[in-house]
């Protein structure tokens, strides 16, 4: 009987004898192993395959996880590690977890719009659009109670054990802040490190509220955040960190992202989303005017999803209006 080349090829993988890890991407989805197959040196590159979209698989998945560990919860948000493979360490059931999960319950239509597949648009927010449309939009979002989970963290009601640094609540007034891991980080892979620095003060909704008078405070906070990070994770050096703010941010309470430079530059770090702290400070220092001159005086361009309220309620109507009233 003729040999089956396909079957022979498939028989090689079980023979792979692992020796060492050569490389792993910062997101933890791809790893390169060095070892041997039948005494011959070999490399094995493993990647996480895309999730099947078959209903029969997805409907059974949540109940079929072999282990589940809650990382924390705050308001309507819950975070877990889980394993779809064998549990090898019964005393440490999340040690080899291969799923990181976020549960939002109860979710709203806004959550659904944010997370489903959608098209994107590149828009320019002028100072006038910010003043007349975006600022009222931000205020409405804040008044709808969508910052309760942030206030829970600031006031020490939730995620207390996750805070890696904070100034004592209320002690430092406008200069008070805290730091904790971003919910998307697995808290193990150093090259994927992602922390959040959240200010105590509530008068700063986004980088649009930053003014020339805030420059010394921003420099002080940046230095404190870097120092706290490298003290907590001594394997990291200062020049392996980058700090940035999002615009538009996910929520309207000023916060700073602290990430390892090796963290994969996904859409959250793309042009039109992430603005470096150094760039913000330099922009403020270069402005002409008094101390109240700030980031609300400049145009900012960024990407919005077609399902987002920013597009459907603000930029799409503005675009339609401009088309209906062409320049004379």
From TrEMBL:
Coiled-coil ranges per UniProt: none
GO cellular component, one term: nucleus
GO biological process: deadenylation-dependent decapping of nuclear-transcribed mRNA
Active-site annotation: 255
One Pfam family named in its UniProt record: DcpS
Gene Ontology molecular function terms on file: 5'-(N(7)-methyl 5'-triphosphoguanosine)-[mRNA] diphosphatase activity; RNA 7-methylguanosine cap binding
InterPro entries: DcpS/DCS2, HIT-like_sf, Scavenger_mRNA_decap_enz_N
Family: Belongs to the HIT family.
PANTHER family: HISTIDINE TRIAD HIT PROTEIN MEMBER, M7GPPPX DIPHOSPHATASE
Protein name as catalogued: HIT-like domain-containing protein
Organism listed in the record: Pseudomassariella vexata
